[in-house]
From TrEMBL:
Pathway: Cell wall biogenesis; peptidoglycan biosynthesis. This is D-alanine--D-alanine ligase. The active site is at E15, S196, S335. Its EC number is 6.3.2.4. Residues 148-357 form the ATP-grasp domain. It comes from Cyclonatronum proteinivorum.
Amino acid sequence: MYQHVLIAFGGASPEHEVSVISAMQAASALKDSGLELLPLYVTKSGRFLTGPQLLELESYKDLKTLEQTALPCAFQTDAMGRTVLTETRKGGLFSKPKSWPVDVVLVAFHGAEGENGAFQGLCEQYNLPYTGSGVMASSVGMDKKAAKIMAVSCGVPVVEGIDFREYEWVAGRDTLLEQLLALDSTVVVKPMQLGSSIGVEVVSGREPLIRAIETGFRYDARLLVEKAVRPLREVNCAVLGNGADAQASVCEQPKGAEELLSFQDKYMGDAGKGMASASRIIPAPISDELTTAIQQASLKLFRELGAAGVARFDFLVNDTSGKFYFNEINTIPGSFSFYLWDKSGVSFPQLMTKLLDIAVARHREKNGRVRSYDTNLLSTKAVKGIKGLKGKG
């Protein structure tokens, strides 16, 4: 069983503040669980910090002071082979750095290196169980093009679009503009690997398109421009579980001030509540047939991707034709989509416990398989020396 839960959040991402809110919500949900919670706050510059004040939302009003008072730390392996979080600040001659045991990591990053598989890879390196999807699913899920390729392979439709890199834009802007303008009179410009609607713009016409693209390149070196779905209804569905035991939540219809839900719509409604403060209709006011189709598509994508824990799938629905299109997957959704599970009979504390249980079970299953091959290959090769290895497979 587990007792020491490390909550990892923050990171070098435009979604840094959103991650802090999700982490505070998770900590609040687990406060009466009897578990020992340990924060791992990754600053915007990439420093690892810990300390009890990092679990208090009020502390983040003054980041400079917070970073000066928190303890720098890093993962290490102790003398017994266990992974621990260890203080790295230099103490006195006879002082011993503090260390904290880690049984499981609750990953609360959003965007960039925290959600794209990089931090998950660090957990794998230290053989730590962690919540959410693994390295591959996290990486594919963060990349909008890769996720859409996967969706198409599953028979789930996506909106027609064109993706390109900044150097392609610089080298052939006029030709690329012609192709983009030919997509539709109204298009959506998206950074390839960001969430929370950051850098996303709906535009019509040449000059607005150019401005949106230039803005998009401030956040990402790759962009995706898609035809706008009109009249548009956004519908989201979350999936919880691992493999065959995954289940879909009720569907929601987010409500924004504009045609597409903005960052302000999602997070600025009530400070400290994250996605929970966004305006939404639950369950989504759509037909039973469409609800079932979106839930089944979400489950299929979740399993095909190899996702785990909780993920949210966002769809675009043409309100006239009723056709729906896969938009993106959030492998660590804002506020862990607890508002969807609450409506599906799972409370926020229960959701957090389920995520931790899934993480530990997946880790146990992985460690039950062969992870190394016992051989004397290196000692045999060493007899021949480096010269003897040349040209050998």
